[in-house]
Amino acid sequence: MVAGLEEGVSSSSHVGPVPFKDLAVVHDEEDGQDMFSPLEDDQHAGIISALPQGNQFMGLRQYQGVWMHHRTVSAAIKFQRRFTPRPSGGGGDVLLATPPKCGTTWVKALSFATMARAAYPPSGGDHPLLRLNPHECVPSMEGLFGAGREAQLEVLPSPRLMHTHMHHALLPPSLAHNPDCKIVYVCREPKDMMVSLWHFTKAIVTTAGRTYPFSDTLQWTCEGKSPYGPFWDHLLGYWRASKATPERVLFLKYEEMLADQVGTIRELARFLGVPFTAAEEAAGLPLDIAKLCSIDTMRSLDANKTGKSGQFFKFPNESFFRKGVVGDWVNHMTPEMARDVDAIVEEKLRGSGLTFTIQIEFRRSWTLHTNQLSKIAVKKETFVI
């Protein structure tokens, strides 16, 4: 460790996190099974069967205004009813929240590396992110509660670092309105989100011999019936919470994070109560974290080339790493498609103060120089999506 760093970090009461996979209880015959009573499962099945049904292709049901996979609905109910927060005296909780395909993998890596830098220097050759997928370091609430393994949260040191795709309105009140919990939210320009969601889903469903055109993702998202949709309700819930309690909810935009990676890491550290010391800044730790979490680094690792991650649904590790650039939608959408999406988003967000200025800049450039913009977007330094 660089001289002077240890003293600066150790002066904080900060302890965690450590990789979740290294601490999780291993179940043998019970692996993957639900630990809750058959009666409760029957009750959930009755609730789910009565819910409005979305497109059958994705198995979606509408629960409390949100479209989710039918298995995720059961996980959401358990999460709402059974989550127990950790008080500030015990270190509190940190919840990362994202809509699907809006920087989940990246913010997990950045947050873990930033919070755990005292125990795991980002330039160290034995850093957990060099051997584990970020999803193995930071657990999913839907995954744990869906599999009946939320007791594993108790083994995490404080502050616990967790993730969810749930809307703010669906979070347990003990978490959403808890002064001892901090929430980091990352959103993404809607058109790029749609493209990323399509590629991710297509890679999975095509293995089952199905076809999945981009127009389907476009239509379902615009109708509000994509996974964890409506997308704009997801955005607005956390946006309004960040305005009401900025000390507890940090609202980040993927595009702005890419534009200033080191600045984002500093902001994360400050918000989470572990700001970089002068010695850490002099040693270049924020930049080291940015390099460690870059898509070029993470995509090259064996841990992210093979295997699967997830406590509930299992996804190929390689599926979490594609381009991670801004503006890839120009390669998938016609001008008419882009205008339609922009109009819907503008209408849904009107009056909230939340905007995506990047879409205006890109649309102007794209109209005049489509090919040039594509080249510029690909040449940008890329990070995990």
Q: Please, what is the CATH homologous superfamily?
A: P-loop containing nucleotide triphosphate hydrolases
Mean model confidence by pLDDT: 81
Distance between the termini: 30 Å
* CATH C-level label: Alpha Beta
SSE order, one letter for each helix or strand: HHHEEHEHHHEHEHHHEHHHHHEEHHH
**Net shape:** globular
| CATH fold field value | Rossmann fold
Strand order of the largest sheet: 4-3-5-6
Which bin fits the share of residues in helices? Answer: 40-55%
Q: What is the alpha-carbon Rg in Å? A: 20 Å
How many domains, as an integer? 1
Major β-sheet profile: 4 strands, parallel
Corresponding CATH architecture: 3-Layer(aba) Sandwich
What's the total count of β strands? 8
Low-confidence region ranges: 1-14, 25-39, 359-385
Structural class: alpha/beta
Strand content: 5-15%
